[in-house]
Design goal:
The chain is α/β, with parallel strands linked by helices. Helix content is about 50%, strand content about 10%. It binds ligand LQSD347O. It catalyses: (3Z)-octenoyl-CoA = (2E)-octenoyl-CoA; (2E)-tetradecenoyl-CoA = (3Z)-tetradecenoyl-CoA; (3E)-nonenoyl-CoA = (2E)-nonenoyl-CoA; (3E)-tetradecenoyl-CoA = (2E)-tetradecenoyl-CoA.
């Protein structure tokens, strides 16, 4: 049954993000868009062809949507079926633009291409040590200023679900942050969610080796991802701006401080999903909150409010949402002025004796999950979510 579900997902949900072709925006050119800025628009379309680096699927979807809006107006196509993922992604991107006027869409298209050209060209020219905005990330925004490297999960329309690309980009951003001249590193989310956890469509892209290979690759990726948090050398702080689900919650046990808005909730519904704990939470949560409370979260999927998570030691402090950003960033800027080497060494003293244990826990959790992902319970949960039969 599990295999059947995987096969269904494999047939119905191809890796749409990989097959959105780069020049798609040019295929539908429509002369109706002839207006004063048509020349800019055409120049922008030509610029897209000249980009040296593929800007990634999310950007290509935005370009597609703006192109369609600029040339045809609001989305006028019937919504594709749930398993027609390529066309659904394109439809969603276009439909999200609502009644945006054609002129504005055209201008946004031109602006996006222009920012794309400069960001992709300048990504290799950033001087180390200067305050800067990151380039070359598709699923994140990364900035570094006032001694703080801030990594923002940036898929707000998907509640910052972590797709495979985002796993890789977070690892890349953490590696860069560990070497840059900032004192502390912050992870936060853009939009109303901190993160809805693992992107459940990650399970639909089945390689030629089949579902077993998919599960094996996912376990390898997860182990490497969590390992980056275990080994991160500088103070790592989570600014939890809204609800957090799954892996975005479990890895909080590897952070040095967690600040939460009172809008945030903390939810690890692994049993509901036929899965088991990761992010070293089977070890860290027991240490943080004791076995009884950890079991309520990790086995029974109890969702905690920010206040409850704070009372149980998972969260450092909670702030009213209305003043959250101001209060947290004032605090973080003060921390970032402390001597960086002293902070790094103190973290080492606090954390190092646990590292070996954490890596062993991580390896064990990933190997258990590798099996879980092949179970009927897990596959049914994923298929139910993708076919919109269930939500948390
Ligand atoms: C390499 C593999 C490593 C695996 C590591 C193991 C990790 C495990 C986990 O993290 S388990 C947790 C997995 N997360 C979930 O099960 C959450 C699923 N999402 C939901 O239940 C809901 O979306 C919600 C409660 C988070 C929010 O509900 P609501 O406010 O009603 O919003 P929508 O459902 O309409 O969501 C908007 C938009 O986002 C898409 N989306 C949200 N979360 C995910 C997700 N986790 N994966 C994929 N897509 C997600 C949702 O489908 C909507 O998309 P649409 O507009 O329909 O295209």
């Amino acid at each position: 049954m599990a295999i059947a579900a995987w096969r269904l997902a494999q047939r119905s949900c191809p890796s749409y993000l990989q097959v959105i072709s780069f020049p798609v925006v040019q295929l539908h050119m429509n002369r109706a868009a002839m207006t004063a800025s048509q020349k800019d628009f055409e120049n922008a379309m030509n610029q897209v062809k000249l980009l040296k680096k593929d800007p990634g699927n999310e950007v290509k979807l935005k370009l597609y949507a703006l192109y369609k809006q600029a040339t045809e107006g609001p989305c006028n196509m019937p919504k594709p079926g749930v398993f027609d993922l390529i066309n659904k992604a394109k439809w969603d991107a276009w439909n999200t633009l609502g009644s945006l006027p054609k002129e504005t869409a055209r201008q946004n298209y031109v602006d996006l291409v222009s920012s794309l050209s400069s960001s992709l060209e300048s990504s290799s020219q950033v001087e180390p040590g200067t305050d800067r905005k990151s380039t070359g990330y598709e699923t994140l925004m990364v900035t570094s200023e006032d001694g703080i490297t801030k990594i923002t999960l940036n898929r707000p329309a998907k509640k910052n679900a972590i797709n495979v690309e985002m796993y890789h980009e977070i690892m890349r951003a953490l590696k860069a942050a560990s070497k840059d001249d900032s004192s502390i590193t912050v992870l936060t989310g853009n939009g109303d969610y901190y993160s809805s956890g693992n992107d459940l469509t990650n399970f639909t892209d089945i390689p030629p080796g089949g579902v077993e290979e998919k599960a094996k690759n996912s376990a390898i990726l997860l182990r490497e991802f969590v390992g980056c948090f275990i080994d991160f050398p500088k103070p790592l702080i989570a600014v939890v701006n809204g609800p957090a689900v799954g892996i975005s919650v479990t890895i909080l046990g590897l952070f040095d401080a967690v600040y939460a808005s009172d809008r945030a909730t903390f939810h690890t519904p692994f049993s509901h999903l036929g899965q088991s704990p990761e992010g070293c939470s089977s070890y860290t949560f027991l240490k943080i909150m004791g076995p009884a409370k950890a079991t309520e979260m990790l086995v029974f999927g109890k969702k905690l409010t920010a206040g409850e998570a704070c009372a149980q030691g998972l969260v450092t402090a909670v702030f009213p949402d209305s003043t959250f950003q101001k209060e947290v960033w004032t605090r973080l800027k003060a921390f970032a002025k402390l001597p960086p080497n002293a902070m790094r060494i103190s973290k080492e003293v606090i954390r190092n004796r646990e590292k070996e244990k954490l890596h062993a826990v991580n390896a064990e959790e990933c190997s258990v999950l590798q099996e879980r992902w092949l179970s009927d319970e897990c596959m049914n949960a994923v298929v139910n979510f993708l076919s919109r039969k269930s939500k948390l």
